[in-house]
Queue: 3 jobs
Job 1
Amino acid sequence: MKVTYDYPISRVSNETTAIIDSREFCVCTQYDSVLPCGVNHDDDCERMTNISICAECTCGATEKAMENINKEELLNDAKINGKFGAKPIEIKLVSKDEQNRIDKEIEEHEKFKMFVEDGYGDAICNK
């Protein structure tokens, strides 16, 4: 089973997103839980009618999505190779000249924004 991992949408430290054959699974290593992402449940399924996140799937959609997935193997692999928590933010260092250019661009944008918000832009555009 070839698995790749991505950071979870929830950004919590005990979950990771496992991707297997373009299918995504939410893996919670704290509670040894594996649930498929993006499953379409029937309208009368317990997962759709019960507000609790712990509601069981009664329509079979989760079971079908979990076909050929070894839950124990996936949990063990996720504990070692998963990406947990919030995705790291890439920080780019720039030169002082580049920072000055960026600051000037922001300042010009703010001036234009105030110009438009004060109504001057409407006066020019509505002539």
Job 2
Amino acid sequence: MSEQVTGETRMVGSSGESVSRPKFQLAPSGDYQLKIQTEKAEIRCADGDDSVPYVSFRVTGTFGDEAKKFSVFPMLRLKTKPEKDGNAAWKKGNQALGLARAAGVEFSVPVIDYTTRAGNTYEILDPHAVLQWLKGLDGQEVQGHIKNQKQPAGSTYPDKNEIAYFIESGNNNAF
């Protein structure tokens, strides 16, 4: 097959161009039915020398009369040491224990010692066990309260939805 080019040829390039980012409409803050999706769930770790792993996954929901879809990408934190508020991160309403209660399932995983690149050792939930547990929830629907997270002025990141807390199954009592 032969191609024939007609008219003027013009060039495009990266010089002086800005990258466009899609504009997503945030779901309004409120309670939603959320579907757990674990096909891309993974164990991740921030870049800092004293960072510990976490488990990331996706939940989806819809809002509005037109049933607009939205996604939230929670991260399950794994440290067992109580934080400033006296609670370990994993026990909070938007973490593993909150998710387990919302899904109506048991959460039981081993605790391991994890040494960071900085040489500090922390007790954390075994990330591989948490990931395996989470994958068992794939496709399940849970109730959750979504809030809007505004980014600081001048941030290059867009505002986003995040899970404030999961709602325990069988009632409307939040954690």
Job 3
Amino acid sequence: MVQQTLAFLAWIVSAAIVMAVAGTIVGEILRFISGRVKGDRLAWLVGDLSRGEAFGLGLLLATFVVAGAYTAMSGGTADYGGAWIHYTVGAAVAFAVYAIVASRRAS
């Protein structure tokens, strides 16, 4: 029972770490692009993103990319839906940790 609980926690923590790193990378790329967008067609979507907005959008985009990469690297043994759920749970945990840390810094 304890071993199964630890395995489940490791599953969540590993996905959260992967998604935090991937979300940060994609979020910083989005912030870099958003600072240079001047056209009206894209400015409403990515114009001048804050760190939290960029991290959230980065997590959203990274869930699809990381799940696809995981499925492709598995050699056909993993399905995309299961991988997407796994990394979506990790993204939710990563965003919750970010929100807790950001709220403590603000106060």
